[in-house]
Each structure stands twice: as C-alpha cells, then as structure tokens.
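Hello Y.,

Per our agreement to keep a running log of every chain we model this quarter, I'm adding this entry. I've kept the format consistent with earlier entries: sequence first, then predicted structure.
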Amino acid sequence: MANETKLPVTRKTTEPAFTPEAWRPFESLRREVDRLFEDFGSEDFWRRPFRSLADFEKAQKLVARPAVDVTETDKAFEIAAELPGLEEKNIEVNLANGGLTIKGEKKEEKEETKKGYYVSERHYGSFERYFDLPDGVDADKIEASFKNGVLKVTLPKTAEAQKPAKKIEVKAA
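Predicted structure for the entry above:
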C-alpha cells in the first residue's frame, strides 16, 4: 500500500463564502407579512385611521380621472363615464365654448363606535373631464343620464353629419 498523506485544505479568500447578514432576499417580505398579521390581531389596527394614507391617496387619484369610453355610432357619439359611489345630484354636465365638461364630487363620511374603539372617516374627491365637441354634433339635443354608477352622455349628430360619405371618382388628367 502506498503511503497516504493527509494535508489540511485551507481556503484563501478575502471574503467568506457565506455570511448570514449578506444574504437575506426575503427578509423584508417576511417582516412585512409578520407586521401585517401582528397589526391585524391587535386592537390598534382599528384605531389608526392614518395608517393607510397611501391607499387613500391612490383611491383619490382614481376618482380624479374616472374611466371614460367614447364611442361613435351612425347617429351619435356616446360618452360613458364610470362614477361608482356618486349620486346624480353630485354630477354636473356643461356645454360651453365648443366643449363638454363633466364634473363630479364625492363626499363620504363614516362613523362607527363599538366597544373598545371609535372610527371616523371622511373621503372627499372631485374630478373634471373636458371633451372637445366633434364636428357635426347637434348641441341642442345633447342628453345625459345616470344609472348604476354610469353616466351616459349622448351627442346626436346633425342630419348633415349622418349622411353617408360620398365617393368621388378620380379621373385621369
């Protein structure tokens, strides 16, 4: 049998191969989830109305520019605006200077008192959208209706605008 030599293996590196402090990709996620569950179980969760200001600001931005669909049919243009939570009395549609303006304001107040806590929340938001009137709209016959959180504005076309396009023959010169 050959002589066996056992030599110690040493590693010469400037940094260790693994440091627990350096490698924590999910640490912040774990902390956030832990905090969420801790907060939800505590009574303080319901007592901190300003905790979700970022969520409230996001909601205000959504209210500031409601989703709008503009479509054209043979007889009219239609504007449909989604305005959930608003009431008819809080919506205003105006026609001036060749344009249509849709305005609205939402005011919501909620107050809740139960054993151990009191919550009072107020949400306010307003919006304004302006649309240039297309050519061929009969401004005297514009109508607006509001149902199930959707405002529908109908801009009927004039008789001239409803005529089909006339094809012009191109002749050689």
